[in-house]
Structure formats: C-alpha cells, structure tokens
Amino acid sequence: MKEPDARTGPPAADGELIRFDQVTKRFGDHTVLDRLDFSVDAGRHVTLIGPSGSGKTTILRLLMTLATPDEGTITVGGQRLFPAGEKQVREIRKNVGMVFQQFNLFPNMRVLRNITEAPVTVLGLSKDEAEQRARELLDLVGLGEHLDKYPSQLSGGQQQRVAIARALAMRPQVLLLDEVTSALDPELVAGVLDVLRDIAHTTDITMLCVTHEMGFARDISDQILMFDSGRVIESGAPEKIFSEPEHPRTREFLGAVL
After folding, report:
1. N or C: which terminal CB in the chain sees fewer CB atoms within 10 Å?
2. Distance between CA 31 and CA 25 in Å, rounded?
3. Does domain 17-95+173-256 have CATH number 3.40.50.300?
4. Cβ(177)–Cβ(209) under 8 Å?
5. How many CB atoms lie within 10 A of CB 233?
6. How far is CA 169 from the centre of its chain?
7. Quick check: 173 and 42 in contact, CB under 8 A?
8. What does each C-alpha distance from 173 to 10, 60, 83, 243 come to in angstroms?
9. SS3 (DSSP) at 228
C-alpha cells in the first residue's frame, strides 16, 4: 500500500487541539453529556470506549456541528466552536473531517467525484488539484482502480474506504471516526481497519475514534477514554486501560467486550 503524505492537514500547533469545558447536552429529559471536561492534543490518537448511550457519538456530532451543546464551551485549534458566530463555525469545520457508520456517499457520483466535490466547492481547489489529491488517496486506501465506479458497484468495505479518502481530501487537522466498521459484514472489517492503522501510523493527523473494536483501539491509540453516563470515568494509555483498569465500571465493560 502506498504510504500517504504525512502532511494530511494544515499544520497544527503543538499542544491542545480540542477542548470541552463543562459541556452538557440533553435530549429531552435525558442528559447525554454531563458537564464534560476533556481535551485532545494535536497529533494524538484518542479512542472513546464505553457502553452504548454513554455519549461517545454525541461528542463527535458536536465537533461536526451536527448538534449543539446546551451548556459549556468547545474549542478547536484555540478557536471557539461553541458558542461562536456562523462564519467562525464554518471556518473551524473545514479542519474537522468525519467518517460515519453509514458511508453517506453520493450515489449519483462516481468515486472520483465523491472525493473531489467538497475540496472544489468548499476549499476552492482547482479540479486538477482536487483530482490529483483524490487519486493519491484512492491509492492509499487501495482503490486506485475503482475511481470511475459508482458506489453501488462497490462492496460495503470499499465504500467505507472511499468515505475515509473523502474525509482526508479536505486535509483536516482532526479525523473523527464513528464506529466505522459497525455496518460492515465481518469479513470486510479487517481491510478497513488496516487502512486506518496505516493512516494512524504514517501521518500526523489527530484522530478521535469511537469503536467497539478493542484490538484496533489498542493498536492505534495514544490514549483511551472510558465513558459512562456522559462523563469520562477513567483515562490512560491502552496498556493501562486494557491490562490494569482501575474503575469498577471499566473492568465490567471490558470484561463484557474482550
């Protein structure tokens, strides 16, 4: 597999890239995030684990501005994401890419255009520059020969790899991964995870990942955050969390999934 350009996104200053300060998010009477505090340093790979409904995906949706917090502040790259004006939010969003559980490809566009559409329309890249970048990324994810196909002509695993390439085409500072293998048949999971391992190990992009693939989390993460009831109850290096968890809820959760 071709090694990617390590300069995946714009240069990020050393230190903190993402910060949540006392963030609360409610859906009706249900509090999903409860005065959440956490941060992610530039270039780090952080994985969020915990039971379903603990607030992990909500964090990613807030960073993508698909939801808004009820209380608290969120900053990305030292700039306020919430609360902030619409123009500032749009500018920050350019530095955040996300790969969803469902591939969300445009069914009426060929693979190449699925990847070039946003860089041309949002970033203002020329068609030639966007296509060159798209071809490099398709080589990276092992799909260089499929650029003229439509999504319906690809397997689920191939569609998810196109979605990864599409997110990287925007050269984000941070890549958000939301259970990216959960919609795939078991035999297709390994190929997608291998692509993400390569990206994690050969680029400087910051990654914030939600997954139930604990082996993958151990392989790619610098830090694991254990969530329960909308809060981080334990954090640490993968070796510590998976081998010597301290919190009883962490031990209970890992005992059920490992």
Report:
1. C
2. 6
3. yes
4. yes
5. 17
6. 14
7. yes
8. 6, 14, 20, 31
9. strand
Cα three-residue angle 127-128-133, rounded to 5 degrees: 100
Structure tokens at 181: 């293998």
Helix (H) or strand (E) holding 224: strand 223-228
Distance CA 128, CA 174 (A): 25
Q: What is the pLDDT of residue 45?
A: 97
Distance CA 87, CA 108 (A): 30
The type of residue at 180 is V
**Calpha distance 170→102 (Å, rounded):** 19
Instruction: Count Cα neighbours of 65 within 13 Å in the Cβ-side half-sphere.
Output: 20
22 close to 185: Cβ distance less than 8 angstroms: no
Residue 85 CB neighbours (<10 A): 9
CA distance 218 to 220: 6
User: Stretch 64-80: mean pLDDT, rounded?
Assistant: 95
Please check the confidence at residue 5 and state whether its pLDDT lies above 50: no
Q: What pTM did the predictor assign?
A: 0.91
pLDDT of residue 14: 59
